[in-house]
Design brief:
The complex is a heterodimer of chains A (about 325) and B (about 260). Chain A contains 11 helices and 14 strands. By secondary structure, chain A is of the alpha/beta class. Chain A has 2 domains: about 5-225, Rossmann fold (3-Layer(aba) Sandwich); about 230-290, 2-Layer Sandwich (Alpha-Beta Plaits). In chain A, strand 1 and strand 2 (about 20-30) form a beta hairpin. Chain A is elongated. The model of chain B has no long low-confidence stretch (mean pLDDT about 95). In chain B, helix 3 packs antiparallel against helix 6 (about 110-135). With about 260 residues, chain B is mainly α. The chains are: A alpha/beta (about 325), B mainly alpha (about 260). The interface of A and B includes residues 52, 53, 76 and 100 of A.
Chain lengths: ~325, ~260
């Protein structure tokens, strides 16, 4: 059994002259919540549609749960549940009837999963009502119930919190975490909401203009590739402190910023104590010594800003 | 795909159509209301002037009512249901959710046909029941159709509506748009094919018109100067009529299946 839930190599999708996906290499490990992060129009939905066979790739290879797609698409999708863009239903039918339709297409064994799936998403009381009377949040939950009919090893959710209120977003987050931690499923979540991915996912890939910019564990991504240990140091004599820190073998980088001196440590976080000792021994008063918590948002903005800058010469040439 | 899954999928497609109240009510109105109006008008005319107007029922009434049902309004009801069956999943936006189950797209298309035809026939049966009620209840002592004619008339009505329903499913799947398919097919059925039937210079090529092939199987005489729906009648052999009907079905099923298989969902 493949260790990867999703694996793509050189996946490319062109719409006429426009390249929507440009040689995507993506590895999504099993048993985690994986965020697929990118601004609107970056290619998030296109890759999901391509993986699911809703549109054909121009070139490249892909595997879902170890099955090559599209050659073994039917086997691959047997244990995959997906919501692409907003969940859509036959509005004139009830929630239960909508699930019966999908169960009929999936196979007879699926029918017995309808009631547990509806209970799992908290819709047992409303299954007899027509979907047109459901709120957006209820439709999202019904969409998840529809995914659960496959007893999925892999759930693919495209912008799942769109249109949800804060309570609904929190509920959805908890549901995703429970699916990963308690039920051992893999959840692939595309989103343009950095905070959402950071709070829900274990790992992520950042996509922009059809290319994967970076991928890895959330902490590594936020730190900028390797897990950087950074400190904000507040002192009573910044010039002297910069001299001492710059000469220290414990410090990779030290520079002044708005909050004080930003120090990148060479070693483990515990090295901060040695840095503190060195400053104190030099007679410098240390007012503040605070580890920097990297946010994915910061990193994302750095990456996309860099891409924008990189693009400028090309645009000028054009 | 095993038969159990096929039956369940047809059942699911039937459920979608059966529960679509607007389509079902309008199809029933098309299949029933014109017949009711026809019998009421004829009954009133007969009661006001029995010598001038024949009874609403009897063989004469049955023949006229069958024309109304099998050539005019039954096919319109079939088009309504067929286009909904062909484009309903796309219109609701759920086609992609069915595709991501991994089920073959051709299977998703194929199961629409029996579901739509099944519902179409249920609706048409109601119309046919009204035809029979009017025929026998309003016969006023005139001869009524025998059992063979009643059975043949029923089979012919099911044939004429079923075939246009299949064409409608295929065409709506091809266009992906119910309004477009509905407009084109109603325009074809009510206007274009009627015009073509009457262009004598087209000669035997008019045999390719579906309603002409269908009319060949009619149990009631259409060779009284009025073809199906009042147009000209082109004579053709049974073999030709069968081939023309099969070609229409095959072409539209193939186009619908091809589009369903290749479209971006």
């Amino acid at each position: 059994m493949s260790e990867l839930a999703i694996e793509t190599h050189g996946l490319t999708k062109r719409f006429g002259e426009r390249t929507a996906l440009d040689g995507i290499d993506l590895d999504v490990p099993r048993g985690c919540a994986f965020g697929f992060l990118g601004p609107n129009g970056a290619g998030k939905t296109t890759i999901i549609r391509t993986l699911l066979g809703l549109t054909q790739a121009t070139s490249g290879t892909m595997q879902l749960l170890g099955h090559p797609v599209p050659s073994e698409r039917a086997q691959a999708l047997q244990r995959v549940g997906a919501i692409v863009e907003e969940p859509r239903f036959h509005m004139h039918l009830t929630g239960h009837e909508n699930l019966r339709i999908v169960a009929a297409v999936r196979g007879p064994e699926t029918f017995e999963r309808i009631d547990p799936a509806l209970a799992r998403v908290g819709l047992s009381e409303r299954t007899g009502e027509k979907v047109k009377s459901y709120s957006m949040g209820m439709r999202q939950r019904l969409g998840v119930a529809r995914c659960l009919l496959a007893d999925p090893l892999l759930l693919i959710l495209d912008e799942p919190t769109n249109g949800l209120d804060p309570g609904g977003i929190q509920e959805f987050r908890e549901m995703i975490r429970a699916m990963v931690e308690q039920e051992g499923r893999t959840v692939f979540v595309s989103s343009h909401l950095l905070d959402e991915v950071e709070k829900t996912c274990d790992a992520a890939a950042i996509v922009d203009r059809g290319k994967i910019v970076t991928q890895g564990a959330i902490a590594d991504l936020a730190a900028g590739g390797g897990a950087r240990n950074e400190l904000i140091v507040g002192v009573d004599d910044a010039d002297r402190a910069l001299g001492i820190l710059g000469a220290s073998a414990l410090v990779a980088e030290a520079r002044r910023d708005d909050e004080g001196i930003r120090v990148v440590l060479v070693g483990e976080p515990q090295t901060a104590a040695q840095v503190n000792a060195a400053l104190v021994q030099a007679g410098i008063g240390v007012i503040r010594l605070e580890p920097v918590r990297h946010s994915l948002e910061q990193r994302f903005l750095e990456i996309t800003a860099r891409l924008d800058t990189d693009l400028v010469p090309e645009e000028v040439k054009a | 795909m095993n038969p159990t899954i096929a039956v369940r999928m047809v059942g699911a497609d039937f459920l979608k159509l059966r529960k679509k109240r607007g389509t079902l009510i309008w199809a029933l109105v098309l299949a029933v209301a014109p017949l009711v109006i026809f019998f009421i008008v004829k009954a009133v005319q007969h009661s006001s002037s029995p010598t001038e107007h024949s009874p609403a029922g009897g063989v004469g009434g049955y023949t006229d009512a069958l024309r109304v049902l099998a050539f005019f309004f039954g096919p319109l009801a079939a088009i309504m249901i067929g286009t909904d069956g062909g484009a309903g999943d796309l219109a609701a936006g759920v086609f992609r959710d069915l595709v991501v189950t991994g089920r073959s797209r051709v299977a998703l298309f194929a199961t629409r046909i029996p579901a739509a035809v099944g519902l179409c026939w249920l609706v048409v049966l109601v119309g046919y029941a009204v035809t029979l009620i009017g025929t026998y209840a309003l016969a006023s002592g005139t001869p009524t159709p025998g059992g063979a004619l009643v059975v043949n008339g029923l089979l012919f009505t099911l044939f004429s509506t079923g075939i246009i329903c299949v064409v409608a499913v295929g065409f709506a799947s091809l266009t992906g748009s119910r309004p477009a398919a509905l407009t084109v097919l109603i325009g074809w059925q009510l206007i274009a094919s009627r015009i073509l039937e009457n262009i004598e210079s087209l000669g035997s090529s008019r045999k390719l018109i579906l309603s002409q092939a269908v009319a060949h199987f009619s149990p009631i005489s259409l060779n009284d100067g009025h073809g199906p729906r009042g147009g000209a009648t082109v004579t053709m052999s049974t073999g030709t009529a069968v081939i023309v009907a099969l070609v229409w079905i095959a072409v539209f099923c193939a186009l619908g299946a091809w589009r369903t298989r290749t479209m971006d969902a």
